[in-house]
Amino acid sequence: MEERFPPPPHTNGRQHDSGGGSGGSDHREASLELAPVPNPDSPEHAFASDTYVVQIPKDQIYRVPPPENALIVKRHRKPTEPKKRSFCCSSCCCWLFLAIIVIVLVVGILAIVSSVFLKLKNPNFHVDHFVVKDLTKSHDKNTKLVYDVKLKVENPNTYSSFTYKQGGAVSLAFKQKAIATGKFVAFDQDRKTSKAVDIVLKGSNTALPKEMQKSLRSKKTKNHLTFALHVDAPARRKIGIIKGSSSRFVASCQFTVDKLGKDARVLSQKCQTERKDS
Hints:
By secondary structure, the protein is of the alpha+beta class. The chain is built from three helices and ten strands. Strands 1, 2, 3, 4, 5, 6, 7, 8, 9 and 10 form a ten-stranded antiparallel beta sheet that branches. β4 and β5 form a beta hairpin. The chain is rod-shaped and about 150 Å long. It starts with 66 loop residues before the first helix and ends with a strand.
C-alpha cells in the first residue's frame, strides 16, 4: 500500500521575497517538494518503496500542447495511407469500368459481324433478252449461229459488294446438248444494285436440233423452246474494307422463249446460284 506524506504547511506553490527589490513585488517560483524518504528498515517501507510525491503549482501547468503534439494529432486525423488506398481503389474502378466497356464493344462488333456474315447472299442471275442471229452464208454447209444473251446480275446484299474477274465462262445447251459457248465479262458491283451484262455466245459447228431449225426457218410461227444457260463467274466479295477470298458463283437458268429471232421473248425462267470456293 502506497503512503503519501503531506507537504510542510508553508509549501503552497508561492514564495515571498522578504528582501529588497524594485517595488517589493512577489516573484513566483516553481518549487518541487520531495516527500521525506522513510527508513528502509521501518515496516512502512515494505509498502511504499521509492515512492515520491511531486507537487507543481497550478499556474505552472501548461494547458496548450507543444507544436510537436499538434503535428502528431494532425497526422492521426489525416493519415496518408487511406489516401493511397482510395486512389488505388479509384484507379481499380476505372480500369474495371474500361474493361467492361471494351468487352461490350467487342461483343457488339462480333454480333454485328456475325449477323452480317450469316445474312450473306449469293448474286442472282436472270435472262432478260435472248436473240439468235444466223450468220450462215449460202455456200456454207454448216450453220453458224450467234446468240446474244442479256443477263441481269443482281446483288441482294446490304453490306457486301462483288468484284467479278476475268476468266468466267458461259455455255448454252438445248435438250442437254451444248450448242454455244462464251465468256463472262469482268465488272464491279456495289451492294443492293443490279447490272445488265451482254454475253455473246458463238454456236458450235454441229448440226442443230430439228426444233431449232424449224423455228429459224419459220419466223412467223411461234415454237416454244427451252434452253439451259450455265454461268461460271469468279468473283471476290468485299465487306467495307474487308476483302474476302476468291470464290466461283455458278448459276444455272432454265428459260423458255416463244421463238428464235429478233422479236423473241422470254416467257418463263428459273435460276439458282451456288457458291464454290476456289
